[in-house]
Design a protein that fits this description.
alpha+beta; seven-stranded mixed beta sheet; 4 helices
Length: 186
């Protein structure tokens, strides 16, 4: 899961704003799967990503830097609810705000599409991710005991009410990014 905002002890290197934001697709599968394997103890494989992307079950957006895919966020949404599925950042690029940038962009995209509630689950021991979500205003709403089968760790359930989108054409009006309609489909 994501990392906290960069602090004074962050490693030197590019800042979050120096990475290109883009929607990921089937052409990005090799980099996506490689990053997933580096970041998670129970990674999704190419098959899961392919099925989800081909079937438009979820959306994946990433940040690209000099070394290729640096971070990604995956989420799905139905009507006015969204769920953050994963946020992954290359280990050597953590603590630079990439996870926070992706989370903020995903929430903004969804709010612009009329999504009113964001939900997620996170390992109870993932203190950096819990802190990041709290900074964005997520509240703990439940606990799934022994949810993660690799360790038996609990999952903390979190929720965030998103602001209503601005009136069409009004100040601050936003819609979905190019290629994404209000249903979440391309």
């Amino acid at each position: 899961m994501p990392e906290p905002e960069p602090r004074g002890d962050a490693a030197p290197g590019p800042a979050a704003g120096e990475f290109r934001f883009a929607r990921l697709g089937l052409d990005d599968l090799p980099g996506l799967v490689a990053l997933e394997r580096r970041c998670f103890s129970m990674p999704w494989g190419e098959r899961e990503f392919r099925l989800g992307l081909e079937g438009r079950v979820f959306n994946v957006f990433g940040l690209f830097g000099p070394g290729g895919l640096a971070a990604y966020v995956s989420f799905h949404h139905v009507v006015d609810e969204m769920e953050i599925l994963n946020i992954a950042v290359r280990p050597e690029l953590r603590r630079r705000g990439l996870g926070a940038r992706l989370l903020g962009l995903a929430l903004g995209i969804c709010a612009g599409m009329g999504v009113r509630v964001a939900r997620l689950e996170v390992r109870a021991g993932n203190v950096p991710a819990l802190a990041l979500y709290a900074r964005f205003g997520f509240a703990r709403v439940g606990l799934r005991r022994g949810y993660y089968t690799d360790t038996g760790e609990d999952a903390v359930l979190m929720s965030l009410d998103l602001p209503a989108p601005a009136a069409p054409g009004g100040p601050g009006a936003a819609g979905p990014p190019p290629g994404l309609d209000n249903s979440g489909a391309a």
